[in-house]
Write a structure and sequence with these properties.
The chain has 570 residues and is of the alpha/beta class. Helices cover 39% and strands 11% of the residues. The strands form three sheets. It has an eight-stranded parallel beta sheet. Helix 3 packs across helix 16. The longest helix is centred in the N-terminal third of the chain and has 17 residues. The termini are far apart. 58% of the residues are buried.
């Protein structure tokens, strides 16, 4: 059972199921106001935090929880700190994700430990940032959707993702990535962005917000989170490891980075995530946007956004260079943030905010503003009225034949032919060699083509190149997968040597499409993704089962440049 305060919240919300129209102020919803009035300061401050936790079962001890939080189990973390939300990861240290039923059981256990229903989040952007893999339905990611140019497909993909997340008890997705990838050297965004074109990125951002969130109080929607405001697309450094700088003026920001966030606001986005980047022409203080009132004022005042602003992870180097871990939460709240994601030390962060209120550095009224936004999001997205999920039904809701067929059809429309001489093949190859980047990816594609995989990695050795050339001697088709080719001379050498064999060679950029400008391969395809669903689409294009329909969603600079919108078909 939920604890008393959660039951009270659910009762109040159930008595107020008539949701105000979008033009009304949802803060006035009876459920939210009543819930806020019944909260202590400590409970309010707890709502401001979204924390990681360690382990796959709510009541099983995990050694990292003792180190991070002073308790043993994930449920004890929630019971001790009463955070507003938690975030799931699939890495080895936090290890929250195994099967859909396990995720549902973890979600239910955490909800039962919380006095107020939790926002349970993950980063299911799809593509290269995917926390929950198969059997959950997989999509190729944002830039592939940008190549497909279909708002309907983007909305459909988000709706399927949302339905499956909600079945597992995940009610918030830290997606879509609304960054405009205007810098080809960007090491952290790239294919996470829909496009280098602000208008296309805005159109698809709005479509995915609609798909994720569905209607108010829907049992199948999740809170969407557009990221990373004011825009991380023009960086050439990674904010996980440093504090990047974006030299946009306000007017340049309005033209280049703001449109997707403006579209997200117009679509009713529940939350927007900040970027740990400095924007000196917007705020000359040198503070990262996460801690910058001038930067966040653009969101609040110029874009008219009154939803939840959440920080990117406070464990990232981009936000920790100038201030202590105790100072950062208070500075973020002063700048206009509502929720604080993954502080380095949750206990220290909570105490720093409580101390700031008690000293008068922050007022309780300021805390109330943020808590109202958080509770309003939870109310409108149905988190307060339906926090638990049916663990016995989750397996039948995940990766359904209909969802998988839709995902494949959408992905089939995203493959882009940049150069073509020999495709489609006149007949299925007798022997296909698939080589180049990606151990799993080459094997997946080879299986689909009925061929042999010879993965050579990011930087193939001379011995690996020689082995690939020898294997190509028996092949009537050679497919070479590339990733970051412009920065990897050995990948270029592999492709050049294979082209010299005279065999039919098809080169494929399986992540950023910028690879295609850096060699003279006569057949170049771009998939924007190395996921299994993208490899299936690629195989279908190579063999002529489907025609390539994607067009470049970014301009490709380099020795052989290609414009935005370029794409061939047959």
């Amino acid at each position: 059972m939920l604890r008393p305060l959660a039951l009270a919240a659910a009762a109040v919300a159930a008595a107020s199921l008539v949701v105000p129209p979008a033009t009304a102020d949802p803060v006035q919803a009876q459920s939210v106001g009543a819930l806020l009035r019944g909260m202590t300061l400590e409970q309010k401050v707890g709502q401001l935090f979204v924390t990681h936790l360690n382990g796959q079962a709510p009541d099983e001890a995990h050694p990292n929880n003792k180190k991070d939080f002073g308790v043993d189990t994930p449920a004890e973390v929630v019971a001790k700190y009463q955070p507003g939300g938690v975030i799931y990861f699939n890495n080895s240290s936090r290890d929250n994700i195994d099967t859909p039923r396990q995720i549902a059981r973890l979600s239910n256990g955490l909800q039962r430990a919380s006095r107020i229903p939790l926002a349970i989040a993950t980063d299911q952007e799809m593509g290269i940032v995917t926390r929950i893999g198969a059997p959950a339905t997989q999509f190729p990611g944002n830039m592939a959707l940008g190549a497909g140019r279909s708002a309907a497909d983007a909305e459909r993909a988000a709706a399927i993702t949302a339905r499956e997340l909600r079945a597992m008890g995940v009610n918030q997705n830290f997606a879509p990535d609304a960054d405009v990838n205007s810098n080809p050297a960007n090491p952290v965004i790239g294919v996470r962005s829909y496009s280098g074109d602000p208008a296309l990125a805005a159109e698809l951002t709005a479509a995915q917000v609609r798909g994720y969130q569905q209607r108010f109080l829907s049992k199948h929607g999740v809170a969407a989170t557009a990221k990373h405001f004011p825009g991380h697309g023009d960086t050439d450094e990674d904010s996980h490891t440093t504090l990047p700088k974006v030299d946009r003026t306000v007017e340049q920001w309005r033209q280049l980075d703001a449109p997707p966030f403006k579209a997200a606001v117009a679509a009713g986005i529940d939350s927007i995530m900040t970027a740990h980047i400095k924007v000196p022409k917007i705020d000359p203080s040198g503070e990262p946007a996460t801690l910058s009132k001038p930067a966040l004022d653009l969101l609040r005042h110029e874009l008219g956004y009154d939803g939840v602003i959440i920080t990117d992870s406070l464990q990232m180097a981009g936000v920790r260079q100038l201030h202590s871990d105790a100072e950062i939460p208070v500075l973020a709240l002063k700048a206009g943030v509502d929720q604080l994601l993954m502080p380095m030390n949750l206990g220290v962060a909570v105490e720093s905010v409580l101390a700031a209120v008690r000293s008068g550095e922050l007022t309780e009224e300021r805390i109330d503003q943020s808590v109202l936004r958080i509770l309003r999001m939870k109310f409108l997205r149905g988190m307060l009225t339906g926090p638990l999920v049916d663990e016995d039904k989750v397996d039948s809701a995940i990766g359904t034949p209909e969802h998988l067929a839709t995902a494949q059809a959408i992905t089939d429309r995203t493959v882009t032919a940049v150069r073509n001489r020999d495709l489609p093949l006149a007949a299925k190859p007798t022997y296909a060699l698939v080589t180049g980047w990606g151990e799993t990816t080459t094997r997946t594609l080879a299986g689909l083509l009925g061929g042999t995989a010879l993965p050579t990695g990011s930087a193939p050795t001379e011995a690996q190149i020689a082995a690939a050339v020898q294997a190509a001697g028996s092949a009537d088709l050679v497919v070479v997968l590339t990733n970051a080719l412009s920065r990897q001379p050995a990948q270029q050498a592999l492709l050049t040597r294979l082209l010299a064999t005279g065999k039919t060679v098809v080169a494929v950029a399986v992540q950023n499409p910028y690879d295609v400008a850096h060699t003279a391969a006569p057949n170049w395809l771009a998939t924007y993704s190395y996921s299994a669903v993208s490899m299936a689409a690629l195989a279908r294009v190579i063999t002529g089962e489907v025609r390539p329909a994607g067009t470049l969603p970014v301009a490709v600079p380099g020795p052989t440049p290609y414009p935005f919108g370029h794409g061939l078909s047959w």
